[in-house]
Amino acid sequence: MKKKEQRLKNFKDILKNGEEDFNEQAWLSFQKKLDHHLPISSKSSLFSNKNLMFLGIGTLILSVCIFILNQNNSVELKSKHLVQTSANKTVDSSNISIQKQTQSKENIIEHKIESNTPILKSENAIQTEAKTKTTSKTSSNAISNVEKNNFEFINNDYSTKEIKQTSILPTTKEQEYKPIPIEKHYCIGQTIDLYHNNTTEIIVYLENEEIISVTPKRIKNIKATKSGIYQIKYQNIIVQEFEVFSEKNVEIETSSEIVYEKGLPILEIKTKDFTNDMTWTSTKGIVKNQKSATEILCFQKGNYEISINSNNPFACLNINKVNFYVAEEYNLLATNAFIPNSSNPKNQTFMPEALKLRSSAFELFIYDSKDKHLVFSSQSVEKSWDGIDVKTGNLVPDNVIYLWKVVLKNPEKGEKNEYNGTIIRL
């Protein structure tokens, strides 16, 4: 019995080391058959000629069965590998299609398919494999879902092929235009500072001609040399405008001398280019009114610079300023001497001439220059000083200096209310 078991073990080892894979179940079945047919008696020989023949035939049959079984397993494994490979390729095709469709979201696409071929070339293969393989069917369904999410099919029949993409370019904060802090109006010759915080450059145009491009967070200056409407474009869209105006020349005319109309020192000025938004200005004088022709009261001695300003900061005025020099201080047009015995009535008494012309309330005082006593006083132009000292009742001596003072009760705007001078009787 031990020899038998040893022989079977050797035979089993031979089969294990053979070219074909060892099948444990087949071997046990074969061993049972051998145990059943072989005699148990130790006197019989297992490797007799007859037994060897049966053993060889059985071994051959077993090898053939094992070979066929392994071949079937190999074919099945290869089939599964091919199915898996096909599924992977389908998924890859799906991923590529999804990426292309996602990239197309940035623009609204409207096109027509001119052939009856499905939109995705791999769709026929996907549908055919879906009937036989579950994995391929799942992949095809995924592609179909992506396709429906990104496109709206106008007609259910894909062969009519009109497809419209429903997604549009998203608007983000980075894409919104941030306006440049500039004025709406400028004058020729002004410098304009351009600075912005947008994501891409802006371009300034004048009459569709590019003037300058400004990159983000960089200051650029342009000098307005041409009049017109300037447009600022961002991503090829007009987002801002400003206008540059040409200069308007303003000529000022003045009188050649001071005119004492109504006893006031008047400088006459005028211009042909005056508008309602303009105002006259003078460094010293007082402007009577704001009209194209007006007057400046020149009470002080010295230079007067006359100009025009505009209430409109974008009037773009080019003004020719005028300078006028006043040689004498205004002093009510008072003379410094009088002759009581003159044949000319105007020279017989003293009264400042401006007080006669202005018709303004006043008080006139005359004092002795030595002791400062009051010699004369009056509040009317009809009562002029004839040289009589009210204290003595006599005519004052000739060639003696006397002091006079006039106090105005209602002076003009910008005019002082007190005037002083000297007077001599000749």
What can you tell me about this protein's structure?
The chain is 27% helix and 27% strand. With 426 residues, the protein is α+β, with helices and mostly antiparallel strands. Among the domains are: 185-245, Immunoglobulins (Immunoglobulin-like), CATH 2.60.40.10; 249-326, Immunoglobulin-like, CATH 2.60.40; 337-425, no CATH class. The strands form 7 sheets. The chain has a 5-stranded mixed sheet with strand order 4-10-9-6-7, with no helix packed on it. Strands 20-24-23-21-22 form a 5-stranded mixed sheet, with no helix packed on it. It has a 4-stranded antiparallel sheet with strand order 12-13-16-15, with no helix packed on it.
Lateral strand order in the biggest sheet: 4-10-9-6-7
Q: Average pLDDT across residues?
A: 74
Report the portion of residues in β strands.
25-35%
Helix content: 25-40%
Order of helices and strands: HHHEHHEEEEEEEEEEEEEEEEEEEHEEEE
Number of helices: 6
Structure summary, number of beta strands: 24
> How widely separated are the two ends?
184 Å
Radius of gyration: 61 Å
- Inertia-based shape: rod-shaped
Sheet having the most strands: 5 strands, mixed
Helical/strand content category? alpha+beta
**Any low-confidence stretches, pLDDT <50, length ≥5?**
38-47, 93-171
Q: Give the quaternary arrangement of the chains.
A: single chain
